[in-house]
Amino acid sequence: MSTTTQIAPQSPFKRWLSGVTNSSDLGMLPVIAALILIWIVFEVLNANFLTPRNLSNLAAQIVVTGTLALAEIYIILLGMIDLSIGWNSVLAASIFSLSTVFFHLPVAAGLVLGVACATGIGFLQGMLVSRVGVPSFVVTLGGAMVAEGVTLGILTPHGGSVPLADDLTTAIGTLNLDPVWSWVASILLFGAYAGLTLNSIRKRKAGGSEGGYAAVMRLVGVGVLLFGAVFMLNAYRGVPFLLLIFLIALFASAFVTKSTRFGRHLYAVGGNAEAARRAGISVKGIQLAVFVIAGFLVGLAGYLDAARLGVASASVGNGDIMLNAVAAAVIGGTSLFGGRGSVYGALFGALVIESVSNGMNLLGAASSVRFIVEGGILLAAITIDTVLRMKRMRSGRA
């Protein structure tokens, strides 16, 4: 007489949790956990950290780092690196300020010139990488040096900085959306994200797979995060215009990378360029397009930085703007080995970097301590990425 043991079916949540526990690709779960821990620590040390006023300041602070990290993520998804994003953004801001202040061009024309300059640099660097085969590290390092020289050349005669004079840029950099419009904008953004998520769920096989459950959980998490943030920001002065522009760029990038053929090809090229070429994908075309897109985002970041500071200054390039952007991209879960990561990592990575900086400033800590903490977080992120990649290799899924 034989007996058979029936295994009780697991709930979707248990299947998802089991998948996360045994997964070799944790995505952004580590950075979200780190962000929550950082916020708890700083709130315990200083009760002003999670106040609406400080969160509003933090929301404005993450914009430039997040936009540059978004540009860097595109490049890293290819398995490459861009070291020129810092100085290229400063150069774009300098061209905008000079054209509007000294040549009295309209704001739109100055913005187009600045962004076009950064986009053109991205195109030239992309040509050298994709067509000539020069390593991206060398190309972008040289590009950063050239951009630094040009920026110093055009700003030094004006004392190294040019204050902005137009009211529109000042408003974008300093003002906030009315609370009512903050809710409207958040609902529209969440609606767009929900539409993409539900469309991806419909494409999955029937039967309620773990992947579909995970997608629903991400949808709920994004809703809680987005509407919770709007509630807190409205308790002070509303959503900063700067943050709205960044979120639009973020969600647009999410659509491009997750819901288009170009996005699928991007991940394929980053995962295995030779296999992508054999599958008929234009590897060189994808690489060139990625550098152009990154250049556009770098130009946008330059404008947003100038709007936030009210000045285009060469001293910005001498800071840690590039290092923070690269760190935010990696901390946000983008694999340095290419082919894995999400553009949403730009938001969470920037939040980690700027939360540490903001919290340290509230505590009056020295800059040396901030660099040590940020460096430790970056090393932890890279270590996790490397360990998970080794796990994928052993399981044949690298």
UniProtKB/TrEMBL annotation:
Keyword RNA-binding tagged: no
Keywords on record: Cell inner membrane, Cell membrane, Membrane, Sugar transport, Transmembrane, Transmembrane helix, Transport
Membrane-related topology note: Multi-pass membrane protein
The keyword Cell inner membrane is assigned to this record: yes
Subcellular location: Cell membrane
Entry's transmembrane regions: 26-46, 58-81, 101-124, 136-160, 180-201, 213-233, 239-257, 286-304, 343-363, 369-388
Alphabetized GO MF terms: transmembrane transporter activity
Gene Ontology CC: plasma membrane
Functional summary from the UniProt entry: Part of the binding-protein-dependent transport system for D-xylose. Probably responsible for the translocation of the substrate across the membrane.
PANTHER family: ABC TRANSPORTER PERMEASE PROTEIN YPHD-RELATED-RELATED, XYLOSE TRANSPORT SYSTEM PERMEASE PROTEIN XYLH
The protein, known as: Xylose transport system permease protein XylH
Source species of the chain: Acidiphilium rubrum
Taxonomic placement: Bacteria, Pseudomonadati, Pseudomonadota, Alphaproteobacteria, Acetobacterales
